[in-house]
Amino acid sequence: MTWTQEYVPLGSIALSALAAAIPIIIIFYLLAIRRSPGQVAGITALIAAFLIAVLVYKMPLNTAFLAALMGIAYGVFPIFWIVLTAIFIYNMTVETGKFDIIKNSIATITDDRRLQALLIAFAFGAFLEGAAGFGTPVAISAGMLVGLGFNPLYAAGLCLIANTAPVAFGGIGIPIIVAGQVTGIDTMKISQMVGRQLPFISVFIPIWLVVLMSGWKATKEVLPACLVAGVSFAVVQFFSANFLGPELPDILSSLASIFSLTFFLQIWKPASIWRFPGEQAGKSKTAALPTYSSAELVTAWGPFIILTVMVILWGLKPIKAVLDMPTLSIYVPGLHNLVTQVAPIAKAPTAMTAVYKINWLSAAGTALFIASILSAMVLGVGPGQFFRILGKTFSQLTKPLITIPAVLGLAYIMNYSGMSSSLGLFLAGSGAFFPFFSAWLGWLGVFLTGSDTSANALFGNLQSVTAQQVGVDPTLTVAANSSGGVTGKMISPQSIAVATAATGLVGKEGDLFSFTVMHSIILAILVGIMTYLQAYALSWMIP
To answer: Higher confidence at residue 146 or residue 174?
Structure first.
């Protein structure tokens, strides 16, 4: 039987939103205050969401169970598949001793921790976000920073915060494309509007990262490098988003930042080399580093070169179309087309699809697994060692294998029950202040789902409808859903789980959440203020 969502089950949108927020409050409490392990917080919040969906929102028991099950399955594949394969490649380079060569080759560019963070967390991480998204950049770049000697908490936190700049155009622009599909607004217009919001954030994210690491005094020493990294990224992001479309801003911006910063560091050096407390600070040790042949460097960097090439290939539309052909689509019985969304969440009564796609060949994790096989050949890893390292990697990730599916199950229950929509409608009731809160809708959507794409699918139409009701161009608020969403990525339980898995911090999810949460809130406020100004004082910026 079909079940229709009810967004005000308690007769008041405020009370209904409060009930819907209970699982989120539980996540915040357990992670930020109790510092509970991620799997404990995830499972507890999942159980709470299930009970509220059934008891308050009157969702049929079997429907709620199937929604949770679909989310759990999505958490295993493709999300956990990406984490497993990404960390597997990193572990192979460590086990074979090649990561020492990578560390030293990066140190020949700079052995200053501040500048290494700019190169890897900000620039290289943005490249991976643009090419693959869905957890890949944090898993790879955070693991690399730990290998370089970064404190694991800082490595994970810096990569999560750095990932703010590229998320809206991640995965070859899929979040913007989905926003256009959901709302009917021209995709190019949404791309242009996001491209007139995020570059302002992108300019100072490198400065923000370095201040967080070392304080303002030490940041002033590398301010020129921060500006080179941020401005080069922001300028290319603006032009590509406004004149090329949503597919390439991250790829082009990150490459511009990598090359600009690398070239700049050949002609400029900071006055002193900064390292974390406990590390020896002072003059550069670059001269004391061993020298390597071209063959040694190519071999050591080979896995990450192969990884990059595979991720790019998997993102190309013609190749992706072929790889998608053997995809297995499972229409979840008892859930598919049996939950109906109604206005104002949907333009007209709309049956929610529930299709679990096993795109085993086109998944980003598969690209990384093939890259791991090629990398094993380059590194001289035989079949026995290959499977031993793979088994070790899987054992390392047993707790994230619980956490990630749990938080995805939570997200799916909240979406299919209408709980997320109740929260969205509550924020949408802010009238003339809605442009400010539109960014917070995106923030909420990404916190719940871990994905800017999913947040746009969830709240895109609500953003469009509400904007028209308050007399604001819907292009602005739909874009703000994506721009505001990027600020929620760093505290999404899914992202936290990926980051802790990549840096050996499993069980310390609460510490990492506390590390990033204030930065997330401040950035969301900034995007909200920017959107409000663009709605009323700077409306000429809307395409």
So the answer is: 146
335 residue type, one letter: L
| Cα pseudo-dihedral 212, 216, 218, 223, rounded to 10 | 100
Contacts of 97 (CB under 8 A, 6+ apart): none
Round to whole Å and give the CA distance between 373 and 536: 54
- Token pair belonging to 9: 């089950």
Is pLDDT of 506 > 70?
yes
Task: Give the C-alpha separation, 74 to 68, whole Å.
Answer: 10
Nearest-CA neighbor of 439 among 532, 327, 333, 348?
532
Which among 363, 338, 362, 342 has a CA at the least distance from the CA of 352? Answer: 338
Q: How far apart are CA 457 and CA 352, in angstroms?
A: 12
What is the three-class DSSP state of 355? strand
Can you list the alpha helix ranges (DSSP code H) found in 8-120?
Answer: 13-28, 38-55, 61-74, 81-95, 98-109, 113-117
DSSP per residue over 253-298, as a string? HHHHHHHHHHHHHHH---SSB---TTS--BS--GGGSPP--HHHHH
Q: How many residues does the chain have?
A: 543
Q: Across the beta sheet with 3-4, what order do the strands follow?
A: 3-4, 339-341, 350-352
Torsion of CA 97, 98, 101, 105, to 10 degrees: -150
Instruction: For 348-395, write each residue's pLDDT tens digit.
Output: 899 999 999 999 998 878 988 999 999 999 999 999 999 999 999 898
Instruction: Indicate the residue type of 351.
Output: A
The mean pLDDT of the chain is 88
Instruction: Tell which residue, 442, 446, 438, 441, has the closest CA to residue 411.
Output: 446
CA-CA-CA-CA torsion sign (199, 205, 206, 208): positive
CB 121 within 8 A of CB 283: no
Q: How far apart are CA 100 and CA 498, in angstroms?
A: 24
Identify the weakest region by mean pLDDT among 52-61, 455-464, 522-531.
455-464
DSSP notation for 192-227:
HHHTTTHHHHHHHHHHHHHHHHHHHHHHHHTHHHHH
Range scoring the smallest mean pLDDT among 68-77, 306-315, 515-524 = 306-315
Any long-range contacts for 237-240 (C-beta under 8 Å, 24+ apart)? 237/165, 237/169, 237/195, 237/198, 237/199, 237/202, 238/195, 238/196, 238/199, 240/195
Asked if 196 contacts 242 with a C-beta cutoff of 8 angstroms, the reply is yes
pLDDT in tens, 424-437: 888 888 889 999 99
Residue with the two structure tokens 């394969």 = 85
329 beta partners: 357
pTM of the model: 0.76
Residue 350 host element (H or E): strand 350-352
